[in-house]
Write a structure and sequence with these properties.
homohexamer, alpha/beta, 6-stranded parallel β-sheet, 4-stranded antiparallel β-sheet, elongated
């Protein structure tokens, strides 16, 4: 697992605590604690897998005697009917972990699958697909990791690791130029500055002020093309706002470097995977 | 706020910790710590609001000097362009809280809106719409609360508060009848037993065994109608599996008591709300 | 262990942190860290065992080299002098865990033993013995689990999983009938409604309003018998208030379905078990 | 409050999380969120109050608009019928906090009351009454504080703050003398050494070895008197083991300095206090 | 406070829990809980203040009635004898908070003061002074913030927010060029790549591979000058390793852009500030 | 490990969470997850080792396949060039753990080394060297343990485990005598009383009042000698305030029992240890 185990464990334990409370009155009251069972995960659709280590970890945390064979890895393309993993453990614990494991696996695979769809739509262009900070509470790392499994890249993780200048920041300093200069004098050398722009005048000023990245916010494709010409390689360009499956290819063809989509993480469709017990 | 504040606060603090890390290098480095600003939330679509107290709480946790006027309450119908709340506080803290507040508000309103759409499709029938345990880690309570704001009802919260008998439980006891009896002898008197059934034979046995609720799992509407006849009021009936906006009305018209949909919480589309600073 | 290990571990870690602080200045300063020892738990009275997995877990968390043979399981009747478990580990860690393990084991066995005494007093009647929400902070699940090990059953776990209508709720709606109706329209289908009644008029109204459970609060046995007649199977009946070892049999013989006792968990007498090192 | 608020708050939040889960389906679904109510705590027996600040804090954490008048303080003698505190707040939140507040208040007052009973039995003797480490998980500080409110004193809080030598420690060093010497060479100057003794030979050796405190473990009163003579003021003396309400006075009259009782905290009888709403 | 309050609060609560345990047996047992007192912080040396908001927050968390006047802000130069803040609160709580507040304030001011000394030594050169990841557990953010208060800048906060290529990374890819290329294809656009170099050959390759930052690791000043010539503005240059107060000016005069010093945070000398009560 | 593993684990997890965030973009993106490597710790100076178990634990928490040979133990004298431990594990996880492990090991060894230097300066005298409560937040136990590894002893751990009377406490009771008496009547028998004195008059009163320990606060050596004569064995004596490497021998030769130094934990110089990968 690339994500640190202790970080993932915290998420899983909170989820299990929500889901189990203290006993599973169906399983604990009916099934012998020592009974063991086999089970497997099977894909119910085509897509990109993500979260299999996390899902397996759910059972490992519940059951030290849990055993597994994992056939597909995070980032693998999977087809409807594929067996993703085969595993066995105490029946009561398989039943206690089932929902939590699937909730995580389906959510992460949903993100990877949707990201991959967008990435493939832009194949052959220069554009990289990235996420945003529009994520769900407590699971940003899981979501951002899932975006990379789908072939996307990660935008900044938090407010400390890349500066992004919007109106309020710029107003506070009088101008884009003023804001970039003031910030440059305070930022460490490892940190980039991105400037949000809404028209070509702002684009020009941002490029001249030395922004590392210029966001072209909610611009139409013609304007973006114009902006990219003005910037002329002085900064990386990012298209953002109102981008969907329908228009992403057109946006990518403007020559923009990055396309960021909030929907990758804020509007996730669970990817259908079932757990079957034998 | 109906949800306990200390519970909501934990979710918010984890989300803020993810999003801020330690400083907001854009705002903290450019804007005077004492500067104050006004801002408001505005709906960008029609739907049902949910999470406004939670969103306001984000700012209250960051800024003791935060002030607010809230115009719409959880559960209210809102229209594109509606001002949901007006508020003011220290500019740097409004900026630090913005993303976390919107992520929560958009997610919860997305659930309430989607639930309400389903609820309205079933108006005039007997059917109640409920959620499932297919929720996202750490925020089940937020999601279940949002379902009620959209007019839905809550299915069981966790594995301790209602028994649900599936194949594995039933196999362990030899029969539905055996499982229900064994469970009845162990369960407290406040807890109901639901039995999952896949055909009319199972439906009959479950009804005779005295199940409180009988789930009609992935049945077509004709079979469900038949099942409801067989049950004849001896148990409440729940339709589950493969139910969508497209077919929910037809399912509701079978006379089933409850329709449960995983998608309400596992495949949420964020509801579009913006924060504008003045 | 039926209780989830990660849940139990949290309780144990907090208890160990309280009890050890950072070093055990007696053992760590005098005994070689590598020295190993055998020890065993022995019952000092007759009763019902509960918490042996929890107690063993204390040592497992402290010492990865811990080994055990457990002779009695939760729920087993034990006699003074019985050896409950035999185990070995690093001496310093056995000493560090001893107090925490015994505190948990004695408390849980105390509950199981007291519950069992009540349960046996009611043998041959219809009455089930249940706990209440009068539990100690952080360990409700341990306590409720112990009640089941003693042969009792669990009343509702929390305020979300069963509705209980008292004066204030009823006053807010004008009448028992109004309260039950309003609640029915809001509750999910998995949740029962219990109504607290103090006289036969209320009993009658509760039964007619369709309460699932009717609590007969602090009634004498004659009144309870009358109430049970009025209810006539329309709801389950629960006796509560002022019930002790002395009068529980008499209460049970009224024909009431459930008898709930706060003392099972709020006034626990530790069951005497010793740890001996060899 | 003498106990640090943030420490108490953690205990309360865990207790509330157990007790509420996410909504109070009785109160939240029936009572207007804005409705306010008055309530009071009334003693149902004679005893010593403890935990009133903790109980009030439960409501303060739930309801920022909570207001209170507190008439009795921790350590006060109270009589059946005494009004302990009068308070008001939002009705739904009073109902949500009631059980948690009472569980804490009744437990702590139960300890203070039982301790006080023992203390009074020993009045006029030299003996101080103390607790032990036989406490319940997570609430040792609450319990030890309650002992002081009842007029008792605290034995060591944890394994770091006073050394206690038992057989295993002594065996590891060959003799009491060896153990005390070795320990003295390692301990900081703020820490005392107590030696557990089971006969007069051990008592003598402990006194000569320079123990600060000598525990007379499970000795009869004649042996204790003899032991006290042998020690002759060289160490403080502590009686422990098998001490009850029935024999404590006799033990105290031996002239022993300290009498420690595990039952003060491991076998607590809740003190009866009710909350009434007006 | 720029650092998020809830983040700082967690650090403070852990520190207070360590320092108080449950009661302050000196203050709580001797001083009336209602007694109030005035106190102030006074500098015992010349330096740069940091942590005054954090220190004040200690008392605010303990005592809702705490009041303060703060005369110096984080980043201010202070002189021996300066009164930093004047405050009042309940005496017992001032005493409970004193040590924790001073421990934090002295540590943070120690960092700011030492950083400032280095910054001043480099005045007039191009060089920026930065910290490293050589920080103390749990308080990295406090330490990095203190560096900025002393006039330094922050290097990367963690392993996610800037890539740093060392031997192992480079070996895994065959060459600096290979490593930079592979990484560029995976990294998001907001993230920079720094390459650690140990000789001029590596410097040249790193510059040609397009590294954003080139670390000149443990090089002498002549080699660094040479390296800077080779890089010729294609990347930012960072001197690291073996830099002290004695040689930092000489290093700065090589023209290097950044000088990073582990000692700023791993070998902190507490800055002397006293709390006096009136 | 003497320090409880679960306690150490919490510190490590918080440190790793700070340092890794979610991925190590250098290692995770460049090095095959399955690649394994050998590494070792090597001393870069002469001193006393402390924290090797803690450092190894960092890798064990990250990597279940981690293997180690540890050649030096906590408290061992080490020389520049000594190999402290040899270990192997997954390369990406060795890289993720490196900084956290070294930060802890260098800090703890720094404390042990500095303590040992002071201890050796006082060899042949009566004086014991102790720490104070001037520690860093969250890691007091690590720091106090390191002091013992360097040959020092621990002063009180927290405000609950030894009483220390300063002006404010004494003023509140009118006199040293009054304060000691009042406290003696409230304290448990396991707890000592230390009185801070600033002149010989106070020393005399403290000795007569029966203080267990008398602190000679910021006195010169002649005064201390005088004080020790006055006390004449009635209490242990502790020198505190302004003690450094330069004057500690002179202080020790006054015959004082204990010398406490805040600098041992508040002004720590990291001890240089490197991790090399093979």
């Amino acid at each position: 697992m690339i994500l640190p185990a202790f970080y993932v464990d915290d998420i899983i334990k909170r989820a299990l605590a929500e889901d189990i409370n203290y006993v599973d009155i169906s399983a604990d009251y009916l099934i012998d604690e020592k009974q063991r069972n086999h089970a497997y995960f099977i894909a119910k659709a085509d897509g990109v897998l993500c979260g299999i280590d996390v899902a397996m970890r759910v059972f490992e945390l519940l059951d030290p005697s849990f055993e597994k064979k994992v056939y597909c890895r995070d980032g693998d393309k999977i087809k409807k009917g594929d067996i993703i993993a085969d595993f066995s453990g105490r029946t009561t614990l398989l039943l206690k972990g089932e929902r939590t494991a699937l909730n995580l696996l389906q959510h992460m695979s949903g993100i990877a699958t949707a990201t991959n769809e967008i990435v493939k739509l832009c194949e052959g262009t220069n554009a990289q697909i990235t996420d945003t900070r529009k994520t769900l509470p407590s699971i940003r790392a899981l979501q951002k990791y899932a975006v990379t499994c789908g072939g996307g890249k990660n935008h900044r993780f938090n407010l400390s690791d890349c500066a992004m200048l919007k109106d309020n920041h710029i107003d506070a300093c009088g101008s884009i130029t003023g804001a970039v200069e003031k910030l440059r004098s305070k930022l460490g050398h490892t940190t980039k500055i991105e400037v949000e722009t809404r028209d070509l005048k702002e684009v020009k000023e941002a490029a001249e002020a030395g922004a590392d990245i210029i966001m072209l916010d909610n611009m139409d494709c013609d304007t973006m093309r114009e902006a990219i010409k003005i910037i002329d390689g002085r900064a990386r360009t990012e298209a953002s706002g109102g981008i969907t499956k329908e228009n992403v290819r057109e946006v990518a063809e403007t020559g923009v470097d990055i396309i960021s989509l909030g929907a990758l993480t804020h509007s996730v469709k669970a990817f259908d995977i079932s757990m079957k017990m034998k």
